[in-house]
Amino acid sequence: MKKLLPIVVLLVFTSTTTIKVFASFEFSGMKNIGGRVASMGSAYTAIAEDVEGAYINPAGLAQNRIYKVVSLMYSKLFNISELSYSYLGFATPDKGKGCLGLNVTVLGFTSYYSEKQFILSYARRVVTQPTSDVSIGLSLKLLHRLYDDKPDPFSTVYDQDGNPVTQEEKVFVDINYGFDIGALYSMKMERNLLRIGASYKNNIVDGTNINNIRAGVAYNIEKKGIVSLDYDISEKSFSLGAEYAVVYRLLDARVGYEQTQSGNNISLGVGLTLRAWRFDLAYILSQTGLPNTYKIGCVAKF
Length: 302
Prior knowledge:
Blueprint: H1 4-14, H2 35-39, E1 69-76, E2 83-93, E3 98-109, E4 113-128, E5 132-149, E6 157-158, E7 164-165, E8 170-189, E9 192-205, E10 208-221, E11 225-232, E12 237-247, E13 251-260, E14 263-274, E15 277-286, E16 293-301
Antiparallel strand pairs: 1-2, 1-16, 2-3, 3-4, 4-5, 5-8, 6-7, 8-9, 9-10, 10-11, 11-12, 12-13, 13-14, 14-15, 15-16
């Protein structure tokens, strides 16, 4: 088990589903937390719907004007049974033009290694017109990392004289923080919708500022679906996503492509909507030799 830990941590830090380590302060760079986000290649800056959208662009929360939203996601990364990735989010609109959100994400490898991130977000529409509006958002983030170097019960360490040495358990804890700022512009075009979004992420890791800027555009075709494009200015990479309404307001098919400095990903997914519930399934096809990853999620509005 312990021999596998360094490999797992290395995979998490270099996976093609990531950007540079802590560049976006999202679980070693992981940014596609929701099933819908992941299946659309993370091209979500200009969509940013539901509570998980705030993970990429906090301004997207302002689109939630009526319902309270709860979002769940679970994933086994790289087909490694001991490596799990889960998420819980909640959003509630206020009495004005804003919305408050809370996200908690947990990455864990059995009891040896864990990352927990807490995000508090608020977004508000600052310009409202009959055919367009502008929203801005802010997220405050706290990341807690723990590495538990437990003694291996199946091996014995000896000193120079050949005597067994008692192994001590060592626990390493690291806490970092950061913030995100986002903006989202929406404009109705007859029955369709054009959205343009941008986000700035500032993360402080070990006293060092790490910044990331991302922009995106999305076009909603009424009762047909969405096409979206994101460009990561800091990483000089892009992602594409599309969602097609197979059965309007019931079944959606999704596809995405993500280019990163470490490689490319192709993602596929489906979404099933049953009244106030939406169930998402995403499958990420790695193009760099790493195992593929699946994610399942659920969103409820009430």
